[in-house]
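Exam revision sheet. Question 4 asks you to relate a sequence to its structure. Input first:
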Amino acid sequence: MGTVTRPKSGFWGPILVLTGGFLFPLLGIGGALDVWHWRSPLPQGNALRDVTYGNAMFVAVGDQAIIQSFDGANWSNIESNGNTYLSGIAFGTNTFVAVGANGIVQTSTNGVDWTPQTSGTSKSLFRVTRGNGIFVAVGEARGATGVILASSDGLSWTNQNSGVAKDLHGVVYGSGLYVTVGARGTILTSADAVTWNAQTSGVTNELLV
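Answer key, C-alpha cells:
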C-alpha cells in the first residue's frame, strides 16, 4: 500500500506518494492538472440535445458537447470551442450547422473543425432544420417575439418575424412547408421561411421537438 510522507516542520513542500518503490510528486508538477480529460463515461458525460446525419457520419451536440460517429456505436469527443451549450444541429449542402445558447451558431464541413458564425441575435436558439435550400433556426422570445433565423449557407443569417411572443422550441421541414412549434400550443407554418402563419393546435401545452 502506498504511503504519503511530509516534513515534520511547518513547511509544506511537494507531497510525494511512495508506490512500488517509486516516489511521485503530487504538487509542483508544472501545470499537469490544468488540463482534464473525460475518463468515465466515455466519450463524455454531458447532456446531449440533438443529433443529425450527413457526409457519412452522425454528429450529436449538447451541453459543452460535440460527438461524432461513423456507425452510431463508436463515438469520438470533439472540441466544442469552450463553454458552448448547443441544443440543435442540422446538415445540408455539405455543412453541419449547430445552434445554442445566446444566439450561438457554429458550422463545420467535417464534424470536427467548427467555426463560430454571427447569428445577429443574443436570444438562445433551440433547434435548426434544413429544407428547400434554407437553414431555419428557432428559439426564445425573451420579452419580444420568438426568434426565427434563416440562412442559405449557415454563414449569413436573416432575422424573420414570427409574430408571436412565445418561445419556439422546434422546427422541421417537409412537403414544401416549414413548421415550428413552441410555448402554449404555438404552431407556425411557412412556405418560404420568411412569411409565417399561426395555426390552431387546439392545445395550450408546451410543444417540443
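Marking note for examiners. The first strand starts at residue 3 and ends at 5.
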